[in-house]
Amino acid sequence: MSDSAPIRVMLVDDHAVVRSGLKAFLLAFDDLKLVGEAGSGFEALALLDKARPHVVLMDLMMPEMDGAATTKAIRERKPEVQVVVLTSFPEEDLVTQALQAGAISYLLKNVSAAELSDAIRKAYAGRSTLAPEAAQALIHTATNPPKLGSDLTAREREVLALMSLGQNNVEIAEGLVVSRSTVKFHVSNILSKLHSSGRTEAVAFAIEHNLIKR
C-alpha cells in the first residue's frame, strides 16, 4: 500500500478507551488511515457516508444495536465495505452471527498489532482472517447445525417475551427505554431468525420451543 492511497478504517466500539488504543495503533502504520469512530451501531450507520471506510473494525457487544446487527446494516448499505470483528468473546453463536451478518474476519482483542494490521490489509483485499477460536466454532457449527432461534440475542429474547404479552412496539420501547426504531429493528431480526411471517407466528414458535419463559 505504500505507493497508493491508505486503507480507510472506521472504528466502532462503545468503549472510548478501546477506541483510543485502536487510534494509537493505526497511527503506527502509514498504509492505514482512521477516517471515523463511532460509539454505537446507530452512530456508525450515521457516519458511514461521511467516513467512506474501506474496512470497519467492529465490536460485538454494544447496547441497543449490537455488532452483528450493525455489520448486517453496513453490508446492506455498502456491500463494498469489509467488516473485521474485533471482540473479547469467542462464543460459537457470536461467531456464527457475525459471519452470517457479513463480517469477513473475526478476531479477538488479544491479537497483536502486526496480526491486526495484516487482517485489515487482507480484508481490504477481500480475504478472511479468523482467530483459532472462531475457526473452531465454525467447524463445530458445521458439524452440529444450530436450532432455529438459537441465534437470538439476549435483547431479542427480551423483546420477544414482551411481544408474547401482546405489547406493541410503542409499549415495548417505553418498557425497555429505547427508541421505537430500535424495537422495530429487533422485531425485524426476530422474524427473520425464526423464519416467521408475523409476530403471532414468531411468538407461537418461541413458546412451543421454550425460547422464552411463559
Question: What's the quick description here?
Answer:
With 214 residues, the protein is α/β, with parallel strands linked by helices. The chain has ten helices and five strands.
Strand order of the largest sheet: 2-1-3-4-5
CATH fold label of the largest domain: Rossmann fold
CATH homolog superfamily of the largest domain: Response regulator
Helix content: 40-55%
Distance between the termini: 56 Å
Poorly predicted runs of 5 or more residues: none
Instruction: Give the CA-based shape.
Output: globular
Number of beta strands:
5
Estimated share of beta-strand residues: 5-15%
Largest sheet: 5 strands, parallel
CATH class (first level) name of the largest domain: Alpha Beta
Task: Explain the overall architecture.
Helix 3 (67-77) links the parallel strand 3 (55-58) and strand 4. The longest helix has 14 residues, at 180-193. The chain folds into two domains: 7-143, Response regulator (Rossmann fold), CATH 3.40.50.2300; 154-208, Orthogonal Bundle (Arc Repressor Mutant, subunit A), CATH 1.10.10. The model has no long low-confidence stretch (mean pLDDT 92). It is of the alpha/beta class and 214 residues long. It has a five-stranded parallel beta sheet, sandwiched between helices. Helix 2 runs parallel beside helix 3, helix 7 packs across helix 10 (199-208) and helix 8 (169-176) packs across helix 9. The protein has ten helices and five strands.
